[in-house]
Structures are given as C-alpha cells and as structure tokens.
Automatic annotation (TrEMBL):
InterPro entries: ArsR-like_HTH, HTH_ArsR_DNA-bd_dom, HTH_MetalResp_TranReg, WH-like_DNA-bd_sf, WH_DNA-bd_sf. It comes from Ligilactobacillus hayakitensis DSM 18933 = JCM 14209. NCBIfam families: HTH_metalloreg. This is ArsR family transcriptional regulator. CDD domains: HTH_ARSR (cd00090). It holds the Pfam family HTH_5. PROSITE patterns: HTH_ARSR_2. GO terms for molecular function: DNA binding; DNA-binding transcription factor activity. The keyword Transmembrane helix does not apply.
Amino acid sequence: MLEKKFKKIANPALKEFVENFDILNALADYNRMKIVILLFDNLKTGLTVTSITNQMTITQPAVSHHLKILRDAGVVAFRKEGLQSYYYLTLEEPLESIEEKAKTLRAELENKE
C-alpha cells in the first residue's frame, strides 16, 4: 500500500501522516462519503446495512464492502441488536488524528520558511 511505497521518508511529520493514510483514504470515496452522511443524519439510532442500501444506488455487498473500509479506518462501528447490526459514526478519534497530523505538517512547513 502507500505506506510501503513511502517507507523511506526521512521527515518524521510526513512519515506520520503517510502512516495514518487509512482515514483519509476511507473518506476519499463518493459512496463512503454518502454512507457517512447517511449515518450522520441518524446519529442517535444508527442504520442497518439494509436501510443504508435502500438509500444508495449500489448493491448490498458493495455497501458492506464500503462499511468494512470505514470500520477498519475507525470511522464507523456497529452494535448488534438481535439479528440486526446497526452502524454508527465514530468520527471523533479519526478527526482528532487528522487534526493532529495537519498541525504537525503545518508546524513543519512553518519551520522551513
């Protein structure tokens, strides 16, 4: 993946940014962004894969695939209620991570001026 391609980066700030690329990658897809928006509109209850699929123009397996990418990046999580799994946003930690990376890179750029 991208981390392997840039394994020899010498700058610590840039290296840290690249190592945490999963969050940005997860949010860089139209369908995943649409899922995030749907989940944001349902913060209190969450949504099942079926209810997400019904609001999208992609198949249920494709929705499940996108949810897995978002889950692996820490953007969403799910809870089981009986036979149903309800997906919900867990954006706080990923957003804090992105903010921290941006601050580090900004400081690095200011030091170079």
